[in-house]
Amino acid sequence: MFPAxxxxxxxxxxxxxQLLLLxxxxxGRGLGRASPAGGPLEDVxxxxxxxxxxxxxxxxxxxxxRYHYNGTFEDGKKFDSSYDRNTLVAIVxxxxxxxxxxxxxxxxxxxxxxxxxxxxxxxxxxxIGLAGLIPPDATLYFxxxxxxxxxxxxxxxxxxxxxxxxxxxxxxxxxxxRYHYNGTLLDGTSFDxxxxxGGTYDTYVGSGWLIKGMDQGLLGMCPxxxxxxxxxxxxxxxxxxxxxxxxxxxxxxFHVLLIDVHNPKDTVQLETLELPPGCVRRAVAGDFMRYHYNGxxxxxxxxxxxxxxxxxxxxxxxxxxxIPGMDQGLQGACVGERRRITIPPHLAYGExxxxxxxxxxxxxxxxxHVIDFHNPADVVEIKTLSRPSETCNETxxxxxxxRYHYNxxxxxxxxxxxxxxxxxxxxxxxxxNKVIEGLDTGLQxxCVGERRxxxxxxxxxxxxxxxxGVxxxxxxQFxxxxxxxxxxxxxxxxxxxxxxxxxxxxxxxxxxxDGEVPPEEFSTFIKAQVSEGxxxxxxxxxxEKTIGDMFQNQDRNQDGKITVEExxxxxxxxxxxxxxxx
Length: 582
Hints:
Keywords: Calcium, Endoplasmic reticulum, Glycoprotein, Isomerase, Metal-binding, Repeat, Rotamase, Signal. With 582 residues, this protein is α+β, with helices and mostly antiparallel strands.
């Protein structure tokens, strides 16, 4: 148990010649302590007073072990202790480097097992003893705890503790990984943990940046997988150990959680989760897109979500407004499509990450739902759904007064407005800026009874600010049905004649022939013209208001009555204005 010379108090075997002398003397002098039956001990007595619940391996001949011990005589006097030197015994078992009693006493031992060994003299230092320390024919008592065992034939031992159901890729040589770990010695003594530093351990695999055993143990791992990796010392820190935390010849145990993995050669990975039928247009660079997303790390940790803000993310794609990976991943998408976009860090936020949610070198996964997209050059898309069977000789044009029913929705199907809620058709004069430009355009050229679908880009609708109930930059979809149309009036006219006006217009209007026309007479006269089909008021307006506006226009001095000098047709006014300008 101690070297022959110089002494170092570790349980090493004496040289063979000295041992032979001990054996010869022991035969002549007896073996010291009696056995339980009353005679001397013939073999080592082993008391296993603490056996761990789990014993993955037992010490065998040729194994390398590390252990602590206290050595005493029968009277309890201590003659040696590894604890006093604060140094474990590290040695190969069963090859003659230990006294025979210790070699036998360690066989079959488990890590963290504690044994009491009684070693008779002929299996210890015999009749010679060890000068100044162990007297001749001494029975030795050892209290031993085994802390480590390995063999030069060992390989890295990998136990999969948890593997996620979805494994998008496995670690290969050359990959860059981010993982958490707890590192312990084989007896459970902790020497390091990434969790205490608040960040993952980030490194390349198979490039010499890690100990060889960890390089091997990480291969084939999936993001989110948990492994236990046991590494023999010759694939770890070997004979030198590492600092004060990893002793020489120590087996290492790592409990590893792989957070993510990528390769510097990786590109964006796309996975279509849902593709709506009838996709006729796909997004290209330069389009403006509105989409919802959930953003997570590769281990499933959510770092951002547009849903939490109850607002889509709105941006141009392919023009550098978003990270390069998202710029690429959104191109080719259809309206309503759901896709998963996996972005390596060199196409995301790189080595530095961003904020406190996205760490450096993180792979990002976005689950995206495309709400709509458009291009600033888009025009209104018009699709005829049905036309009346009878011949259509007149279609709507600028200036016409139209009545129509409509349903308005977003491209994802979210209904915004419908005229059916009001129980009456919507009314508008085309070209009078009473409706959004895209709808005004889409209502032109229609036949009464025709149904159309209109796709209106936001720059022809409510723009980037939106309107009440309409999100900013939203593409709108209308289904419209034309109920009726009326010819409109020329710009600036409130009333037109269907034929030439009366030759003596003022006299006909002056019903009581008193030389002046008050509002009542004016209103009665105009209504009579309309009723008799001789003229018509501007459609879509309150007739009373229109007639009131007409009266105000003719009552030049605003005295509440029209005289013959004041009454002029608009055509005559326009002609006079031309002469004045000339």
